[in-house]
Amino acid sequence: MVLVLTRKDVESVLTMKDTMLAVEDAFRELALETVQMPLRPVIRPQKYGGLVTFMPAYVGGMDALGMKLVSAYPDNPTKYNLPTILGTILLNDPRTGALLSIMDGAWITAMRTGAVSGVATEYLAREDARTVGIFGTGVQARTQLMAMKEARKLKDVKAYDIVPESSRKFSEEMTERLGITVVAEKNPMEVVSGSDIIVAATTSKVPVFSGDWLKDGVHINGIGSHHGPGIKELDEVTIRKAKVVVDQREASLKEAGDLMDPISKGMISADHIYAELGELVTGKKKGRTSNKEITVFKSVGLAIQDVATAVKVYELAGSKGIGKTIEI
User: Fold this and answer.
1) Segment 299-310, tens digit of pLDDT
2) For the chain, which residues make up each domain, given as ranges?
3) Higher-confidence position of 27 and 140
4) Residue 226: pLDDT band by 50, 70, 90 thresholds?
5) In CATH, 2-108+304-326 is 3.30.1440.10
6) How is 88-148 classified by DSSP, letter by letter?
7) pTM for the full model?
8) Distance set, CA 67 to CA 4, 10, 12, 104 (Å)
9) CB 106, CB 10: distance < 8 Å
10) What is the CATH architecture of 114-302?
11) For the chain: N or C, fewer Cβ within 10 A?
12) Known catalytic residue: 68?
């Protein structure tokens, strides 16, 4: 029997704390080399202007096997009344290969993306970090902020979006949801000024703030644009100033324009990447080593995050009797 879980089902059982624990375990296993994770293939049905990505992974130490199928079709909202991004996760029994569950992948994607930044923040942000500045106010920004609150004792948040109404709604919603003050700012410099943690969660193809504005000791999570050369949220000044940690070197050097561009220009080398997140989790390398250093976590998103989170959802749903079982 296969357990089918809708987005509503997933949302009802998955907390940010559980997601961060699952993601941290997944990166630990990546560093311990128990993971099998091919680089994601992409299919582009050019007739329809979309793309479909397949993200499989086996996390040996967690005995987690599965795959996320995620698509991006820009015309979906206007032509078909569907979200631009759609995702489904298939979870398999590693002992037999049998299908265990089919579950919505959209909320898991949002949660695990927030969670990986939360884990990075635990290792890289100053202990006394209290103010977050966030660029972008979409779904990803919401889970990013949830994770920042889990990682640090926040006092206030400054948000900016190119659509002012989006910033206003985000600020009102997240103030009520998290019980902290979230203010919509009018320009990027106001967001950076005074922030201990900065989150870039946008679809921008150009840097969203200047590295010249950064103060000592700030930590930055870059989780938005990462689709190749020439596409970046963070400028070269930011990258050059920072101790850079990534989710995976190989994937970042092939997908993260924030790193690919300064490398191609000879401004830094690939060795500028200080560590993978898993190396911090296992203690192979230290995270923040002083209150003055600027740190950057750049994420392109890995299948292990989805699979590890899906296993947690499957376990929680099973224990609570949530979902519908079907025979295929």
Assistant:
1) 999 999 999 999
2) 2-108+304-326, 114-302
3) 27
4) low
5) no
6) EEEEE-TTT--EEEEEE-HHHHHHHHHHHHHHHHHHHS-TT--EEEEE--SHHHHHHHHHH
7) 0.94
8) 15, 16, 22, 12
9) no
10) 3-Layer(aba) Sandwich (3.40)
11) C
12) yes
Per DSSP, what are the bridge partners of residue 133? 158, 198
| 277 contact partners, CB below 8 Å, separation of at least 6 | 27, 116, 119, 120, 123, 245, 246, 247, 297
Q: How is residue 177 written in tokens?
A: 């949801």
Largest CA distance in the chain: 58
- Please, are residues 151 and 122 in contact by the beta-carbon 8 Å criterion? yes
Q: Which residues of 247-275 are buried (b: 16+ CB within 10 A; e: fewer)?
A: bbeebbeebbbbbbbbbeeeebeeeebbb
What are the pLDDT digits (tens) for 102-144?
999 999 999 999 999 999 999 999 999 999 999 999 889 999 9
Q: What is the CA radius of gyration of the chain?
A: 19
Note whether 192 and 212 are within 8 A (CB).
no
Strand duo 99-104 + 181-184: pairing: unpaired
Question: What's the token pair of residue 51?
Answer: 């793309």
Region 210-219 average pLDDT: 97
